[in-house]
Design goal:
The chain has about 220 residues and is an alpha+beta fold. It has helices at about 15-30, 35-50, 75-85, 90-100, 150-160, 170-195, 200-210; strands at about 50-60, 70-75, 105-110, 120-125. The protein is about 45% helix and about 15% strand. β1 and β2 form a beta hairpin.
């Protein structure tokens, strides 16, 4: 014979502090969907404007030592220079050397995420570090540098006081710092999104929209 058991239920605001805590914990545990996808998509699109072409993002978070974010893909060196450096003859010379395949076009970005996901797991490596040329080789493509020898173009870079990078290693180091800074920015975006989704405001909106009721212990009725 079936029995009807009546259970008194409450709206979230009617619960005791202890029961509210139980309800909050249930709400946060329920965030097992891929809430980060929108942040990923925005970070990938914004990265393209900086010359960062991101294939994948990793993160762990948010309140433990070693938490952070990293990304893998490649950096378009010419685009990065154009986006991050003021116009100068030296920077233009770098861009033309890249265009003519004398200096590496891309820097590969990898990440070792065996234990952690933060930016220090990232590595930035020239993927065309075997570019071969002679100092007297002439620039070929249409530009203000056409016909100049490679040695002359490098001299323009070295002698330009406004050009921040005098060698390829300097560019790679700057790109490495910039790429890791962007990983930290991605992590901050993810953390802000998570904290927003876990906020009291969002939780209450969710409870109201779904007309949730709880037992006096904070369990969903």
């Amino acid at each position: 014979m079936s029995k009807v058991i009546e259970v008194e239920v409450f709206k979230y605001g009617e619960l005791s502090d202890g029961a509210k805590q139980k309800a909050r914990e249930w709400y946060i545990e329920g965030m097992d969907y891929e809430w980060w996808e929108g942040t990923y998509e925005m970070a990938i699109e914004d990265g393209k404007e900086k010359g960062f072409y991101i294939d994948k993002i990793y993160f762990s978070g948010f309140y433990s030592q070693g938490d952070g974010a990293s990304w893998v893909g490649f950096v378009d060196v010419r685009q990065w220079l154009e986006e991050n450096c003021a116009d100068s003859i030296g920077v233009s010379a770098w861009c033309q050397l890249i265009q003519e395949d004398i200096v590496t076009k891309n820097i590969q970005v990898t990440a070792n995420n065996a234990h952690y996901c933060h930016e220090s797991t990232m590595s930035f490596v020239d993927v065309e570090d075997n570019c071969e040329f002679t100092d007297d080789e002439a620039m070929q493509l249409p530009s203000i540098f056409k016909g100049m020898s490679v040695a002359t173009v490098f001299d323009l870079i070295v002698n330009d006081p406004t050009c921040p990078y005098k060698d390829v290693d300097g560019i790679t180091q700057a790109i490495t710092k910039s790429g890791k800074d962007y990983a930290r920015d991605i992590y901050q975006r993810l953390r802000e999104e998570y904290e927003y989704l876990c906020s009291e405001e969002m939780m209450l909106d969710h409870f109201d929209a779904n007309d949730y009721h709880f037992t006096n212990e904070g369990k969903l009725a």
